[in-house]
Amino acid sequence: MSTLPRSTSKGTMNPASIPGLPMFHARPVSDFDVGINSSAAWTGSLERAVGDPSLSDDEGEDDEEERGRSARALYKFEGKVEFRELNVEAGDEIEVLKEEVGDGWSLVKVEKNGEVGLLPQSYYTFTSDFMAAPDLNLPARKREASAQSITPRGSPKLEPEQLPLLPQHTGEWFPSFRHSLLGGKALNRFSSFVTSGAEEWVLKGSPTEPEVVPHSREATFSDEEEGLSNRLSRVTFGEADRHFVDVGPSWKTKVPPFRVLVHSPSKRASTLSGAYTIYNVTSLFHATGTDDDPPPGSHVRVTVQRRFSHFVVLHTALSRRLPGLALPPLPEKQYAGRFSTEFVEARRGDLERYLGRIVRHPVARYAEVLTFFLGCESETEWKKQVPYHLALPPAGPSFYAHVFHPAFNLDAEDAAEAVERFDNHTKAIGKGVQSLRNIFGQVRESRIEMSKAERLLSYSLLSLITSKPLASAPTTGISEQDDEYTGRTNGLMNQEGAWCWREGCTDCLRLTKAIQRTSETLQSVADLYDVYARRTQLATHESMKTVAHPSSLYGGVVETHRSTLSRFKIAAAEQCADEEMVARCETVLNTTMAEMDTYHTQKLEDFRSLATDHLDGEIAFYEQILSRLESARRAFDSPQYNDLARSPRQPSIYERDLEHPRLTPKALPQPCPHVFDSAPMRPVSVAIQEGVGMLFGGTSPVRSSVFGKFW
What we know:
By secondary structure, this protein is α+β, with helices and mostly antiparallel strands. Among the domains are: 1-31 and 244-393, PX Domain; 36-128, SH3 Domains (SH3 type barrels), CATH 2.30.30; 431-472 and 493-657, Arfaptin homology (AH) domain/BAR domain (Substrate Binding Domain Of Dnak, Chain:A, Domain 2, Up-down Bundle), CATH 1.20.1270.60. The protein contains 20 helices and 13 strands. The protein has a 5-stranded antiparallel sheet with strand order 6-5-4-1-7. A 3-stranded mixed sheet has the order 9-8-13. A hairpin with a 3-residue loop joins strand 10 (259-270) and strand 11. It is elongated. One of its GO terms (molecular function) is phosphatidylinositol binding.
């Protein structure tokens, strides 16, 4: 039986409350970049750093002893004032007061206006790294082979004084620059090959090899008196951090699959954070350990309450601890209209699909932070343990150091062909799904039009048997003399309300009441069309986001795979092959190939579910229509038809609508946009080239901030 472990009662201390512990110890500095973090994720980090005087509302006076390093902005950045973010232009001179304040942000000061605030680390470079070179006669250098310039090995990191940099545009200047200062690493800090730690793992291996011990709460969580820094210094890699790749390559499942439901949203209020929405998150486990036909009552349920900021904590921690996986994006935060019924339901569905993708992944489903997220029922324990999970250093190369796979589990040529086919396939699926989403929107609009048509037909039948004119109805073929007749004119209806000029005509009474029932049935059919388009089909339209943009989601996997392949070929083809580097490349390739296999499995499940859900919805929809039409049809057959003459006709509830027919429905609700539906980000290589060109006197057009478009 798979159940979630309860959180321990032993909590963690606030780093700000530990005497003598600087705040920057709460998040150890890593040698690699964790990539771009969302604004929502940073908001949670900003709230946690309450003890940091550099982030307080009251700015202290400048201290000459705390002057930082000189830097220069590479790109334009438009920040948000409420998040203490700065606005800088490309080329602005800045002073970095604290390089690492959490989640890839730095505390900087703009020289031109003296403003102090936050700026992403990827948006600036230190100008002290580029020193003016004296007039030296450098010896002529022979042009090295391209392979050696791309992947240098064993080259020491020289200081600028040892090897001055000359801004040349010819020869081997750029490879020498990277060779000397970056140790062979790529300059592109946004590259997934770099940010995931794969490049550092391939070039150097894991910087530290902590002992892998069986995971336990006692080994991970210490008493409150020890402090956060002592706990982080004793972090070990347990069973949840060991990942196995089976033959395929494919991930080996360690935990049986289970379901997660996000339901019953409710609005809450807090004196500190204001109003917010809380969601119930229920995990369903099967006692039999399988998803195939579980017996009744075999589910083990664990229900917790989570708000959106809790999901941000989960996503941030997962992204840092599982850098080699293609994790789904977290829905973006919204401020306007976030308590409306439509938005809350859309957000609930997005969060449920997000958790569904997480727990379906064979590796992410047993992550420690996910177990904590789904199983911690105490709000007090949640507040105690969250700082620990957020303060854990990014896994980086250590992630790949704990991936185990069989020897000779892949072929380099097959891996190269597979990634090209996979990349083309995901791009084609992205285009096809986008077209499908647009067409499905038109299908939903057509359902609304059918609803209007059925309603108009109903009004027309009712207008026919009552001789009451229908407002806004087509008047083709109707003369002006016909307009003088109304329902009060003698001969149009008898005293029993029958559609006849004869009094006491039972045959016309039966016919009139049967046609009236048909008109009312058409009204119910029109309602079915309207509700089906607004609810059932909206849910299907929303679920299409699950399969949208696979190329963007797996772009980092593809990029890491290709970069590793190039390193693999160079390391294996040289005269003195580096077997250790080849083995590390194979580990990364096994990881990326396993991720491609995971997408293949999830694609089968997703599209099968989409098709069956749509067909089931259509069948149920048309069965309801068929049931209503059959009921209306039986009114024209005996014995029901004969029974209609026993009583006079009662006015229809829809007769009052003939003067003001309901033919203008409300706007059809549309699904919330996918995170990747925004304007595409320009290639990072272009931005890097423009930034470097600006630093060395080149000209490049200044563009708007990428973050500004999303935030």
